[in-house]
Amino acid sequence: MGYTVDWFVQDRVYVFNIWGDLTLDDYHEGSTVAIDYVCDGHPPVHSILDVRNVTDYPKRLSEIRKVTAIMQEPNLGWVLVVSDDRFIRFVGDIVSQLSSKNYKAFATPEEAIAFLWHMDTTLPEPPPSYLVASNTEAL
Fold it and tell me: What CATH number belongs to 2-119?
């Protein structure tokens, strides 16, 4: 697995680009990194997860649920997933229902960003680039 993570809007919205084959250890590592961003930011801290280039991942919901500690963070705002994989979207729906967190999946980063700015009017204007970087590029 490879990933990049950085603030899209400092202390409010971070983007987590993930690619390659994911393991449960990768899920755990990613959750730990995300928790650091959520705890360091100013609530609500929103997450955009771009997983369009993930090639394989664990599919047992019971295992995945054990490594999603991020969903328990009180400072977490919206979790927006960018993917066209129906199973990834389904798992996100289930985990968010179990944790009572705001979650929505989108096909493109642009859709996720437009939705987030519509839902959280306290955010400043999106950065001029407006596009989430691809999986290996810095924001």
Answer: 3.30.750.24
121: how many CB neighbours lie within 10 A of its CB?
6
Listed by start position, the domains of the chain span 2-119
76-108 tens-digit pLDDT: 999 999 999 988 888 878 877 777 789 899 999
Other beta carbons within 10 Å of 119? 14
Task: Strand 2-9: give its sheet, edge to edge.
Answer: 2-9, 13-21, 45-56, 76-82, 103-106
pLDDT of residue 138: 37
Does the structure show a pLDDT above 70 at 134?
no
Rounded CA separation 89/82 (Å): 9
Query: Which residue, 118, 122, 57, 62, is CA-closest to 83?
Result: 57
pTM (2 d.p.): 0.85
